[in-house]
Amino acid sequence: MINLKKQIRSALTLIEVIVVLMLASLILVAVLGIYNRMRTSAVTIMDRLQQNRLQTEILQKIAEDIDRLAAPGFEAIINFQNKLDNGYRSAKVVLENSYYGTGDKNGTGKKDTFEKVIWQTSYDPLSDTLTLYRMHGGLNVEDKVLAGTDWYIPVTRGVTHFEIKSQQGETVLGAWTSETLPKAVRVGLSFAPLQELEDGSIGVSKEDIFYRTVAIDRTRLIPYQFTKKKFDLPEEDPNDLSEGDPNDLSAKDR
Length: 254
Prior knowledge:
- By secondary structure, the chain is α+β, with helices and mostly antiparallel strands.
- It is built from 2 helices and 11 strands, in the order H-E-E-E-E-E-E-E-E-E-E-E-H.
- The strands form 3 sheets. A 5-stranded antiparallel β-sheet has the order 1-2-3-4-5, with helices on one face.
């Protein structure tokens, strides 16, 4: 009888241990699941912040190139074109300013390139995305070692949208090949994956594209004039004294 009670106590103790282990394993699995979800969310947020910062830095660099090369005192040109490259929106922009060594513009002076910058994207089959390149050449080079060479330096990979447009009044142009400068250009850049848009096409949604509008030659004089506008006021009836004189203080006290 005593041995039977001992066996029952041992069995109950074993069951309790198994239950405790099962509860502990469930708690551990739940904690690990929460940790993995938090870690995945943190990585996603950090990647998003890094992409946003990278996009902002690239657009800032393009804006600085436009401001520098389109400065007054040089004969500057800005040409750009857009195209579809393996389903991705790709673009190329050429910024160049020139000077004349001897003589004047209408004389025998030789026209030379003082500075030239090219931004363009090309399809990369290894990553199935676009790679953004920058080329800097001309007389005023950033790196004297690269003087006299037109090397395209990769800036970043994984680009899924690179587009340049010009706003001329109410008209939006996707290409500019004129020798005159546009009033402003808008550059769009994104690393977001392609998706089906509302119109049924494949591309990057506008919410995932970072835009930067750059004014050309901010120091130029903008012509303006004041225009007179005539307001048609209702004619007053001298016999109508219902409202009285608004400047009459005694009338307000009554």
